[in-house]
Design goal:
By secondary structure, the protein is of the alpha+beta class. The protein is built from six helices and eight strands. The chain has helices at 35-47, 49-55, 79-90, 123-133, 154-161, 175-188; strands at residues 29-31, 62-63, 66-67, 97-101, 119-121, 139-140, 146-147, 166-170. β6 (139-140) and β7 form a beta hairpin. α3 packs across α4 (123-133). The mean pLDDT is 90.
């Protein structure tokens, strides 16, 4: 069998075509932020969890102080997966991006309405980060000894918090659109099970 070499040309194609590919519905802005931004959010949440929960009465779960949508899957990473992620933070690995909804509105009582500022992608990574900072598990130091966050001095804490963790942000109050983008992100990476798909059955 002869393998034919394919010459790629960016713009070469039919002059006219009726083919139309999917269109962009939600434009995401990207911000090169540091882990410290999330840590500050967690610090605020841990100081007054009741107050934060009162602002998001519909949210039953949070990750690094960010409310999670009621239709998101639960935290499923094992401790081993969490340790590997935190280690990748320490060594300056590419952490990808986490996605939040920058849209918000208030109800008559002054609380945020459903889906305001929800975390749409990155729950497992943010949950791992929260668990590490709160001392639920440790990671090996340079010599291989497992260390908790509470054991670290100022310089090492500052180095960790200074690592880049990119935030992507969309802006919409349309829950159907939010569910669709959640499914695209969730099913395009680490496998989810079909019962965790959230947009099924919604008329789009």
């Amino acid at each position: 069998m002869t393998t034919q070499n394919v010459v790629f040309q960016r713009h070469s194609g039919p002059d006219e075509s009726t083919v139309r590919m999917p269109q962009q519905h939600l434009m995401a802005q990207v911000f090169m932020l540091q882990v410290d931004m999330l840590a500050a959010n967690l610090e605020k949440y841990s100081a007054d969890p009741g107050g934060v929960k009162a602002k998001y009465p519909w949210a039953t779960r949070f990750a690094m102080g960010h409310p999670l949508a009621t239709w998101q899957r639960p935290a499923v990473w094992t401790e081993g997966q969490q340790v590997r992620f935190i280690t990748s933070v320490w060594i300056g690995g590419d952490l990808g991006s986490y996605l939040v909804n920058g849209w918000y509105e208030f109800d008559a009582q002054g609380a945020y309405v459903t889906n305001s500022e929800v975390l749409l992608d990155g729950q497992q990574r943010l949950a791992a980060l929260e668990g590490y900072l709160l001392g639920r598990f440790g990671v090996p130091d340079a010599s291989g000894q497992v260390r908790l966050w509470s054991e670290l001095g100022y310089n090492e804490r500052r180095r960790f918090l200074g690592m880049t963790f990119t935030q992507a942000r969309v802006h919409t109050g349309d829950e159907i659109a939010l569910r669709q983008i959640y499914d695209l992100r969730a099913f395009g990476g680490t496998s989810h099970s079909e019962d965790q798909r959230t947009a099924s059955g919604i008329n789009c």
